[in-house]
Structure formats: C-alpha cells, structure tokens
Amino acid sequence: MDKAGRRALPVRWIRKGDDIDCEAWDISVDGMFLRTNEDVQVGELLQLAITLHNRCRLRMFVAAAFIGETTSGRGIGVEIHIMDDMERLVWEDYHRSLAVRDEDDSLGLVWCESVDGLEELRAAHVGDGASTAMTP
After folding, report:
1. Cys-Cys link to 58, which of 2, 87, 101, 118 (CB 3.0-4.6 A)?
2. Model confidence over 58-94: pLDDT tens digits?
3. pLDDT at 134
C-alpha cells in the first residue's frame, strides 16, 4: 500500500524463458503502470496475467506506451490491447469497484475463483447486490 492508501495489483509478466513478477499501479480501464526495473521498447507487446483479490486470474496483452520514472516509481506504462470478452467484463467491473471503494472503504466485493465460475458467483450473490459479470 502506498502513502495515498492505494494497493498494488500483483502481475506476472509472461516472457519467453523467464516470467517476471511485478506490481500494477495507477490502474485505469484501458491500462496501468507496471512497477519494474525491466526495459522494453515503446510499442512492444507484453503478455500479462493479473490476479484480482488473490483469486480471479485474468490474461491480457498490453503495449508499452511509456518507460521511465514516475511518482509511482520506475516502470512501464501500458495500454490494454487484447483481452478475452469475459475477462474484459471482469476487468471493467474491478475498475469500477476501485472508484466506489475510494468513496466507501466499507464496500465488500465478491470475486470469482476463475472466469469459469462467474455463473455460480452470480447465482450465489446477485440477490446480495454484489457486482457480477456474466456471459451472454
């Protein structure tokens, strides 16, 4: 957690030969900042696996838009380019929850064990007003 109370999101950067564990900060619906000392070229495509609430793992391809120092540390600013439709819904829901959580720290959210578990999640929690994403 940083000084402003923001939490880092664990990210695994999947690379040929050696994966790199890093943290995502400054999260938006279209991208994030990866805190890492690794270097890449602007425009380079990266494959990421992101774990939400230690349970729901999402995969995405992102493109490096910025490499360098920021107020969040040294790293890579990335834009999301490719993501499965269902995982995109989960990501967007997660992003919305960040904005709501900033307004109300008491908000409790329920997250899936996997994207495959969304139907069970909805069935179990939609009556409780939990935020869910569903397949069509």
Report:
1. 87
2. 999 999 999 999 888 899 999 999 999 999 999 998 8
3. 43
Torsion of CA 64, 77, 92, 115, to 10 degrees: 60
For residues 61 and 44, the answer to whether their CB atoms sit within 8 Å is: no
CATH 2.40.10.220 fits 9-83, yes or no: yes
The pTM assigned to this predicted structure is: 0.70
Total Cβ atoms within 10 A of residue 41: 7
Higher pLDDT pick, 70 / 106 = 70
> Is 64 within 8 Å of 41 (Cβ atoms)?
yes
133 close to 114: Cβ distance less than 8 angstroms: no
- Structure tokens belonging to residue 124: 């179990």
